[in-house]
Amino acid sequence: MRLSIFGLGYVGCVSAACFARDGYEVIGVDVNQFKVDTINSGRSPIVEPGIDDLIKQGAESGNLKAVTDVMRAVHESDISLVCVGTPSNHNGSLDLSYVKRVCQQIGEAVKSKPEKSQPHIIVMRSTMLPGTIEETVIPTLEAFSGKSRARDFDVAINPEFLREGSSIQDFASPPFTLIGADDENTARALRQLYSHIDAPVIELGIKEAEMVKYACNCFHALKITFANEIGSICKAMGVDSHEVMDAFCKDTKLNLSPYYLKPGFAFGGSCLPKDLRAITYKAKQLDVDAVMLNSILVSNRVQVERAVEMVLRTGRKRVGVLGLSFKAGTDDLRESPMVSLIETLIGKGLKLSIYDRDVELARLFGANKTYIEQEIPHISQLMKRNLNDVVEGSEVLVIGKKDDDFRMLDGKLNNGRIVIDLVRMLEVSQAVESYQGMCW
Ligand SMILES: NC(=O)c1ccc[n+]([C@@H]2O[C@H](COP(=O)([O-])OP(=O)(O)OC[C@H]3O[C@@H](n4cnc5c(N)ncnc54)[C@H](O)[C@@H]3O)[C@@H](O)[C@H]2O)c1
């Protein structure tokens, strides 16, 4: 498999040097003649631990050469990996000018490439927002090649996860190899390209793969900001932030784990809102500007508003709510976001009925009986003892939590009802088959 690598900056240089070391024939391409000459003379145009030796070995073995000639690079390779820059415009939007230009050039080269049994594959490694391949890359390649994707060439995304300073190690042992492709032939070619890398391979649709890179980088930025804000509050209180965060990181059940990382409805309960309020109030008193921590409850309220919007958009009036407490197996209604949602919907004039087995029991005997009767009587009086009564009387069903009790609904929803699954923040309009088993 012969590779052409477009853009010999950090990502391109490291990829070119590592693939050449791993035995591939690599042609690097850059518009910058100096970078091309530097690589051909066996030296690295970037500063990165370990790269000088790899480029020297690559140039000496003949596995790595660099050119400015796009036509030659495409004609003499089977796969083109695109690693050009995608910087920010002044307003923060993504500058795709390098991506467009390189796609024009590759397109022109594909146009004159002699027919082969396998179509040329163009793999984007640059970081690009979801939709860029569909709206920019493919149309540009098609326009300039006069050929069509899938029949004459293939396109995929394979985001890069290296970190400057440790990129050679990161290339050899990434967290995973991410392949975003819409067809099996392209995905197979990429699996083969990385078959020597010891990392799990994740295959997704193109847009999802484009987005994973942003989710990762947003989360990394969030982690750093979180640690810094906790650190600043600790410092102002004379607390050793490193001891705190060392202990924090030892919790791999809830803290450093997939827990709490599934998109869904707002959080609530007796602890998270209360504790966030207490620490952000304390930070304010100490003149610590905890911008990110301050924004969490605001964002949580917006999530409730999104759910309200989802229900209102259905245009229907009779709404059944399944699940009232903030999670399954509890009757605790303190700061339940479902209570906020329900109060807003009542205020908008909708007719609600509610079922929650845990809360129903509490209403009869539990410790929460007084709270339910005195604090939320307007909600208590909408509760039904029987799940079927709620389902039968509703045009829209809002599922508020995972509950085994709701399994009995499988196959019983096909009466033109709209189902809004807040566990996943999805509307599952009337498509009962696809809904089965989804929430539980
Ligand atoms: N730097 C990182 O650590 C890192 C990590 C992961 C992903 N990324 C992403 O990878 C992409 C590349 O990042 P980088 O830091 O390597 O960029 P860079 O700016 O260092 O290098 C880009 C290179 O592309 C070349 N180039 C521009 N137009 C070209 C064209 N038409 N043909 C050939 N070469 C062309 C430029 O001359 C330059 O050498 C970006 O989208 C970035 O967000 C970067």
Rough outline: elongated
Given helix and strand content, the structural type is alpha/beta
Kindly state the number of beta strands: 13
N-to-C span: 46 Å
Name every ligand kind in the structure: nicotinamide-adenine-dinucleotide
Radius of gyration: 28 Å
The percent of residues in helical segments reads: 40-55%
Strand order of the largest sheet: 3-2-1-4-5-6-7-8
pLDDT averaged over residues = 92
Number of continuous helical runs: 18
Summarize the structure.
The chain has 440 residues and is of the alpha/beta class. The protein has helices spanning 10-21, 33-40, 51-61, 70-75, 97-111, 132-145, 167-172, 184-193, 206-237, 241-250, 272-285, 291-313, 337-347, 357-364, 369-375, 377-380, 387-392, 432-435; strands spanning 2-6, 25-29, 64-67, 79-82, 120-124, 153-157, 177-181, 201-204, 318-322, 351-355, 396-399, 418-421, 426-429.
